[in-house]
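Journal club side-thread
Mid-discussion, someone asked how the predicted structure for our own chain would compare to the paper's figures. Pasting it here so we can look after the session.
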Amino acid sequence: MKDLAKQISSLAQKYAMETAENLSEIVKIKSLSGQEEQVQKVLKRQMEEAGFDEVFIDPLGNLIGRIGYGPKILAIDAHIDTVDLGNLGNWDFDPLSGVIKDGFVHGRGSVDQEGGAASFITAGKIMKELGFDRDMTVYFTCTVMEEDSDGLCWKYIIEEDKIRPDAVIITEPTNLNIYRGHRGRMELMIVFHGVSAHGSAPERGDNAIYKASRVALEIEKLNGRLKYDPFLGKGSVTISEFKSGAPSLCSVADYAYLYLDRRLTWGETKETVVAELQEILDRLGIEAEIKIPYYKGKAWTGLEYGMEKYYPTWKIDESHNVIQTGRKVFVDLFDKEPVIDKWTFSTNGVVINGMYDIPIIGFGPGNEVLAHAPNEKVPIDHLLMAAAFYAMYAFSVNL
């Protein structure tokens, strides 16, 4: 495989500036969740120019390129929606410039995570040039709406497009490390009801704010005793919103809710999270409703699609074939051992593996500390190394 690795590395280097220019072209197009149409059209053209066997857009707006025809399926995924630009005063350059300078492609989405898409399009071009003829299908997925609801796009691909890969490479930024998991997350509401009364005689009512406040203090304590996993770290919970309602500002509040952001470590599930909150309510003798919100978004195609805001924890054992194949590919290409680690943030893996148990390896260009941050930029060297990795992985993995 060393000779193949040399061929692939040479082609990745040859197409390095083309990869950077492809990325620059899409960085210049603002592509918030649900507004990805123009970027998808450009990416579709880039895939076609690279010689992919098939390129199509599904009803949710995911762009899917295909190389190969075999029964075993490898998917390489990049979400191409980005967060907004934020305070422009925090940027040292135009976030939509896509400028190529000093060995970097600059701009929003260059790291999170359109760089992955640019790299895997080059990988596809390399595969076609080298005559990829394995009994396997490789899908290259430019997915939508991830920033609004991680994994929603893959729920659609698996359930509606009926594409279920045997393994997936997630190209979220890993700083060219190999990642094998991350904490899950979920959002919850705790809704409290009371009885209103005139503010001059609060004893006649039942104030929902006081109930919510007592529970809020217990949730603060709960955060300190949540589970810990040696690889993924500790679970966490925080209250991100506290709202209440009353007939007037001279009345006892008859309604309140707490909105929770809950990060889930290994062994924590939707059921365990709800149970620990119910235990607090029972212990305090407070009646309230625990709800898991439902996300429903409108894609750029006009299709509405949704899922519960529960995004399961996942991790892949380091000895798993998908990880060990990645390790060998890395060594063959770069002549050194990779760092094997995890993401801090959440990815489409919450659905791909967390819900559907499909093996995942994470490998992507760029440093995740720049995700959602000003002055986002990705090294061109990362782009060409990622392109080489994806192509070599497709030639190497046994599914």
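Post-session note: The longest helix spans residues 380-396.
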